[in-house]
């Protein structure tokens, strides 16, 4: 097992971390380590005595999208959880529910922090004719699952978002996402629409 501790003055472009995330780690005084972990454990957050640590599996260092996604989710634990996200054996149904709720809350924070709805809609406004889930994943440098999670949390707030004028984003049939035009109040849902 090896460990690399990232500090402000040694981080170069070699690591796949987004600058926004790096600044946030420094501002919040969160230590970041890369360690070889079990393949199934991509990252974890640990907090004790007001010291905060995020560990990212070194096996994903060269996958920028996955790296950013895991780092964001672990930052979500820092901002939304008490304690840490270290996996523990859940002996009871209640413990398992508590763990799942913590994961859900951290993911919701992560998608809303990193992909503000207004920024996502602005991206759709400038690209709505030629957009795909893969393109969104590439643009935001996160996994497709992370983009789908963003759509899911948006759909809990409302099912339809105005992109511009009569162009709408519909999230009422996830994982399908629709872009449609509404002419004079007449919904052309499914007609002149784009789905992926």
Short description:
The protein is an alpha+beta fold and 196 residues long. The protein has helices at 19-27, 64-80, 93-114, 117-127, 133-140, 144-157; strands spanning 3-6, 30-35, 43-48, 51-57, 160-164, 167-173, 176-183, 186-187, 194-195.
Overview of the molecule:
- The protein is an alpha+beta fold.
- It has two domains: 3-114, Zincin-like (2-Layer Sandwich), CATH 3.30.2010; 117-195.
- It is 41% helix and 24% strand.
- The chain contains six helices and nine strands.
- It has helices at residues 19-27, 64-80, 93-114, 117-127, 133-140, 144-157; strands spanning 3-6, 30-35, 43-48, 51-57, 160-164, 167-173, 176-183, 186-187, 194-195.
- The strands form two sheets. Strands 5, 6, 7, 8 and 9 form a five-stranded antiparallel beta sheet that branches. Strands 1-2-4-3 form a four-stranded mixed beta sheet, covered by helices on one side.
- Helix 5 (133-140) packs across helix 6.
- It starts with a strand and ends with a strand.
- Mean pLDDT is 83; it is low at 1-16 and 189-193.
Q: Give the CATH class of the largest domain.
A: Alpha Beta
- What is the overall shape? globular
* Helical fraction: 40-55%
As residue ranges, the low-confidence spans are 1-16, 189-193
- Order of H and E elements: EHEEEHHHHHEEEEE
Give the distance, in angstroms, between the N- and C-terminal Cα atoms: 42 Å
């Amino acid at each position: 097992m090896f460990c690399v501790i990232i500090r402000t003055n040694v981080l170069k472009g070699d690591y796949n971390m987004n600058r926004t995330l790096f600044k946030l780690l420094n501002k919040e005084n969160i230590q970041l380590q890369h360690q070889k972990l079990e393949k199934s454990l991509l990252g974890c957050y640990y907090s004790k005595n007001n010291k905060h640590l995020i560990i990212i599996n070194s096996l994903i260092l060269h996958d920028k999208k996955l790296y950013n996604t895991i780092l964001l989710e672990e930052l979500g634990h820092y901002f939304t959880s008490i304690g840490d996200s270290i996996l523990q054996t859940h002996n009871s149904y209640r413990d398992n529910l508590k763990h799942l709720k913590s994961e859900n809350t951290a993911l919701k924070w992560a998608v809303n922090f990193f992909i503000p709805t207004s920024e996502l809609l602005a991206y759709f406004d400038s690209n709505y004719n030629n957009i795909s889930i893969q393109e969104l994943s590439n643009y935001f440098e996160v996994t497709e699952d992370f983009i789908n999670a963003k759509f899911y949390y948006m759909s809990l707030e409302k099912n339809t978002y105005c992109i511009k004028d009569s162009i709408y984003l519909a999230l009422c049939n996830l994982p399908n996402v629709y872009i449609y035009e509404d002419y004079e109040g007449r919904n052309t849902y499914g007609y002149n629409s784009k789905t992926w």
